[in-house]
Amino acid sequence: MRVTNSMMVRNMLDHLQNNMGDLNDLNEQLSSGKLFQMPSDAPIKVSDSMNYKSQINRNDQFQRNLNQAENWLKTTESSLKSATKVIQRARELTIYTANDTMTPEDRETVANEMKQLRDELIDISNAKLGDNYIFSGQKTDQKPFDVNTAGGIGSFVDYKGDISSIERRLNENVQMGVNLNGREVFKDEIEALNKIYNDLSDPTMTGEDIGDNLSGMDDAINKYAELRSEIGGKLQRTGNIADRLEANKVHLRSLKSKNEDADLAKTITELKMEETVYRASLASGSRIMQQSLVDFIR
């Protein structure tokens, strides 16, 4: 094959362009820290990175759901703890007044405290997390209880929420209910405290009549203990899930980093090599480009 000067120049320019392209690719990797800039640079790696990113985003959403669930459960547990103290105090007062030796003035004093305990339990039942009432079911913008002073015994408060469960997806396999509704948790207890208050305010009621309310107080204390145990179990489970989600997040980020992050030490070495090749190409090309027909006529 006959080799001409123009062929040598054209080949030299082609190789020089390739060397410049390789040098540019390495420069971009070094400046960005990434192995690729465009999907066309590495389609398979880009697809893998997009998949890792999607998994990381989903994991982040699970963590946000988990934080919401834990906050809801902790607020619920705190409310139940406060409610238990109210019922325990009401029980103490009930035992104290379950006799006929108290003066009317003493009963009135106890009745006033019982009224405060009743109102305190209503206030606890209307607990909020941010702008949401936690004991209203899914009607989180609706206060659970309204006082109905004309309702009489057994209907002192009206429940305005619903009994629907609020669910949170905590990972691919776990969806947890995080709420308790006020009708099941507080309605009977509020009515019970209101009844004791009315009994204490009624001079015809005997100590034995007041003592009949003790079983209701015991049932309430046992119920709250069971509910707190249930909430505690859920909090324990959310803690375990949180640990797994955090470990999974670290793992996914590591995989994504290995897939797309450049090895800076290796890139610098390759860049120096390509720079040497490029400079050699320029030096070689300068000798070829200098020759022309005039050079041979001389």
Describe this structure in words.
With 298 residues, this protein is mainly alpha-helical. The chain has two domains: 65 residues; 146 residues, f41 fragment of flagellin, N-terminal domain (Up-down Bundle), CATH 1.20.1330. It is 70% helix and 5% strand. It contains eight helices and six strands, in the order αααββββββααααα. The protein has a two-stranded antiparallel sheet. A two-stranded antiparallel ribbon has the order 3-4. A hairpin with a 2-residue loop joins β1 and β2. α2 runs antiparallel to α6 and α3 packs antiparallel against α4. It is rod-shaped and about 130 Å long. The two termini are 27 Å apart. The mean pLDDT is 83. Belongs to the bacterial flagellin family. It comes from Halanaerobium saccharolyticum.
Summed up, what is this model?
One of its GO terms (cellular component) is bacterial-type flagellum hook. The chain has 298 residues and is mainly α.
Q: What would the keywords be for this entry?
A:
two-stranded antiparallel sheet, mainly alpha, 298 residues, 8 helices, Flagell_FlgL, f41 fragment of flagellin, N-terminal domain
